[in-house]
Structure formats: C-alpha cells, structure tokens
Amino acid sequence: MKMDWRAALVALLVAVAPVMAPVNADAAGKVLRRGTASEPPSIDPHLAAGDSSSVIIDDLFVGLMTSGAKGELIYGIAQSHELKPDRMTYIFKLRPNLKWSDGAKLDASDVVYSFQRLMNPETGARYAGNLYMIDNAPDVNSGKKPVKDLGVRAIDPQTVEIKLERPTPYFLEILRSNAAVMVPRQAIEVNGKSWTRAGKMVSNGAYRLVDWVPNTVIKLDRNTNYWKAANVAIDSVQYYPTSDLGTMLKRYQADELDIIFNIPPEQFDAVKAKYGRELQVVPDYGLFYWLMNTDKPPLNDPRVRKALAISIDKEAITKRLLKDTVAPAWGVVPNGFPGYVSAVKNYDKIPLKERQKEARALLDQAGYKNKTLVFDLRFDSREEPRQIAVAMASMWSALNIKPNMRTSDFRSLTADVARKDFQMTRYQWFAPFQDPVTFVNLLRGDSRTNHSGYANKAVDDLLLRSDEEIDPAKRLKLISDAEALAMQDNAVIPLYFPVARRLIKPRVKGWNIFPGGKAQSQYLSIQ
C-alpha cells in the first residue's frame, strides 16, 4: 500500500543528530566560532565549490575588488581603476606596500599569475568560465593558446591592465568572486597540490590558515601583514563543519558556536520564540536544484525531465516540510535582482492532478506506459536533503517512478558531479557575484558551472547577445529570455530559493543585514 505523500512529509520531520567533537570551551569570547554546513571540498580558490568553502576563502584571500561590511562592492588590493573609452580596457592601480601572509611582497606580477593560473587548463578551475570575457580567456582555458596570451599584463609593479573581448558592464562585480582572488605563486610552485594545508598555505586576506583538523575544525589567525590588519578586531576564527542542522543548533544553544548558518525548519517557530533577537531571516542569492545528466538515458529525454519536474508539489515541500521559510522555484534566478523579470512558467498555479495527468502522458510518449522509470537519485548526507528526496519519491510513486536513493558526503558528491558520474543529484549554487547571469550560466552550453551536459544554441546565442548588450534593460531581457527557453527544456529542476536563517550571538557585533549577506570575519567584533 502506498503512503500518501502528505503523511510522508509529516513522518520525515524526525531527525537523528550525530555525535560531534566538542568545541574548545576556553575559546569562548576569545575567538569567533562559526558553523558551516560541511567539510569544505577545497579552500583553493580555483578549485573550491560550495558555500562552506567560499566563506573561508573570503576570510583568507582578496582580489582586485571585494565586499564591504554591508555587502557593497569596494576596492580590494586595487586602490583605483580607469576604464578606457573602448569600454574593454581596465587599468588598476594597486595599493602600496602589499604583502602576503609570509611577508613576501605582492605586486602586479602576482595578479598576472593568479589570472593565468585560473585559466590554465592544467589547473582545472571550476569557475574559470565566469571570466571568459577577458581577452583570449576561452582559448587559453581550452589549451588553444598559451597562458601568456591572456589579456592580463603588468604595466609596472603597481599597475595592471586587463583587456576584455567585449564590453562587460558587470566586470568589476565579478572581480570580487572567489575565482578572481589572488593566489600565492611562491607557495603553489613549492608545494603543489598540498599548498592549501596548514603550515604551507600563504594568503593575502585578513586571516591566515593555522590548523585544519578534517571534519572537526579549521582555524584561522589574524594576518598581521594584511594592509588593514589594524582594523581587524577578531584575532582568531574557527570554522566547525556540522552537516546536521539539529546538531548545529544544539552547539549554538550550548554556547559552543557564535554563528550558525541555518536552523532545522521544523524547529523554526520554537527558535524564533526563544532566540528572536538573535535570529536573522533574509533573502539569499542562491538556488537549490536537482541536477540531471542530460547526456545519458533516461534523463536525456526532455519529456522525462518535464514529467519529473511538473509532478513535484514544490508548494507542499516548501510550506510543510521547510515550514514556509523558503520560496519555491520554477526558474533559476532568485527574486531580488533589480530590473529582472522572470518569464519562466510557474506550474504551482496549475492543480497537481492536472500536472500529474500531463506528466503521465509525457512518460507514455517516452516509452514508460507499462514500464517503471528508474534512475539514481543522489543527495548529500544531511537530514533535510534526505527528507526532500523521500518526499519527492513519494509524489512520483503515483506515476510509477521509483528512484534509487543514494547518499554521500558533499565532497564525494561534487567530485562525482565533476566527472559526470551521476544521473540526478541535489545541487546548489550561490551567486559568486551579484548579477542574474551567474544563475542562467548554469544552463549555458560552454559554462564550467553547467554540470548537466545541457546545451541549446538558441539559449547560448541569447546569453552571448546579453554579454555584448550595453543597455541594462535590454541585457536583462535577453537573460530572462534565455532562462525561459532553457526551462522549457527542463535543463534542471529548480526546487527552492534559500532564505538565510542565521543565529548570531549578541556578543558578536558588526553583522549587517543585506540580501545574500555572508559577512567576512574582518568586519565583526566580539564584546
């Protein structure tokens, strides 16, 4: 007998919290203790993926541009810039007396090296494609041209020129992303892949890495060679990977953590009642979605993908399972980008029974009239993804769809995605820069962030035109059209747009509220 999916949702709200290593009690009040969702797969800015990596990288490294205390775009190691009349040539003047954490001088040659390493195909940088507007970047990244041909050069030790292939209105915005930070040539060339280990890593941001105990804690100390070291109030930051939200909340309640990034949806009301003054609920520039391998059956068939997508009751998942703390997604671009209007069809307005009828017809056409649709459904080992996956499987069971549930840690999952060794997996994306194109690039054929294999020339052409469009309104319309066209193909299955539900101890000062805000530790203090 099949369980009704509504009953299944209720049954799934019980989570078992794993036992975690204790936090050093002596650290209370002396360091900032931050919880993260998982062990970061890497803290090499060119190889890292996921929010657990990016928040640490933000503390360790900085590029030409960076984020201010309120999320605003500000200069990083650059102190000024000039845009030439061709709108494709940028001249950056660096701050004087810049140093790496090991005391070595940081100058324009380090900027050139960092961008060349990003585009070097031997690096395998995940998000090199975000900077393909740099002259010769696509050809360098594909191995067609040597790295010396990349459009980044040192005019003198304090001046860098970056030439673009096309005008890019949001170029400065991209320069604050993790992919565009500086990386230390002296550490990488000596230590190779192990350069990110404690004792070997060299950084140029507000903090330096001093210890990393896998799956337990990552410790950072203030970088005394940082150009604004005198303004950094917190001497040490400790990151504690805690995949289970219930366990993370308990650590916060036990005064073992000062900041946690999320709370269990089923405990939201109770947490709000007890910790209302410490709770922040703000929109996040992110997307949680189901990534499908469109190169292999059965998910290479757009009819199958659409049937899966429209038969999910996202309203039920977001309202009942996630306690109405997130917004259901049918497109990939979150709300909140000024001037952006999504043209993606919202199936929540169509009754579920009608959608199931359409899905059944699509599956019949695809050859599953008297055949069970089976595929592997992957998700990381946290409780919330498991609950959502089981709820979806319950919804799909009415259509004779039976996914094989597979869990794995986030590091293994991201590695398998990079190898295209999956059929369907839960994935996430948080904006590395504040522009809707970063989300629609998930659907772009030549994008490094497109892990599905999906490619549609019409979509790519629209995005290429948007890259070259100077008028802001026309550019956003082209991006919106590309998103709508790709979602007609159900290139991915968007699930929901996350809302940041953070708890921050009253003794932590300086955390400003802004959409997508993940405050760098250098802007905080402990009282």
Here the CATH topology of the largest domain equals Dipeptide-binding Protein, domain 3
Basic shape: globular
* Low-pLDDT ranges: 1-29
Reported for the largest beta sheet, the result is: 6 strands, mixed
- Helix/strand-derived category reads alpha+beta
Please identify, by name, the CATH architecture of the largest domain: Roll
Average pLDDT figure: 91
Distance between the termini: 58 Å
Count the E strands: 21
Question: What descriptors fit this protein?
Answer:
single chain; 527 residues; alpha+beta; D-Maltodextrin-Binding Protein, domain 2; Dipeptide-binding Protein, domain 1; Dipeptide-binding Protein, domain 3; 3 domains; 6-stranded mixed beta sheet; 16 helices; 21 strands; globular; SBP_5_dom; SBP_5; peptide transmembrane transporter activity
Write the layout of secondary structure elements.
Elements: H1 5-11, E1 32-36, H2 51-60, E2 65-67, E3 73-75, E4 78-83, E5 89-94, H3 108-119, H4 137-141, E6 152-156, E7 159-163, H5 171-174, H6 185-191, E8 207-213, E9 217-222, E10 236-241, H7 245-253, E11 259-260, H8 268-275, E12 279-283, E13 286-292, H9 302-310, H10 314-321, E14 327-328, H11 352-365, E15 376-380, H12 383-396, E16 404-408, H13 410-418, E17 424-430, H14 437-440, H15 457-468, H16 472-488, E18 493-497, E19 499-504, E20 508-509, E21 525-526
Parallel strand pairs: 1-10, 15-16, 15-17
Antiparallel strand pairs: 2-3, 4-5, 5-7, 6-7, 8-9, 9-10, 11-19, 12-19, 13-17, 13-18, 14-18, 20-21
Family: Belongs to the bacterial solute-binding protein 5 family.
GO molecular function: peptide transmembrane transporter activity
Main location: periplasm
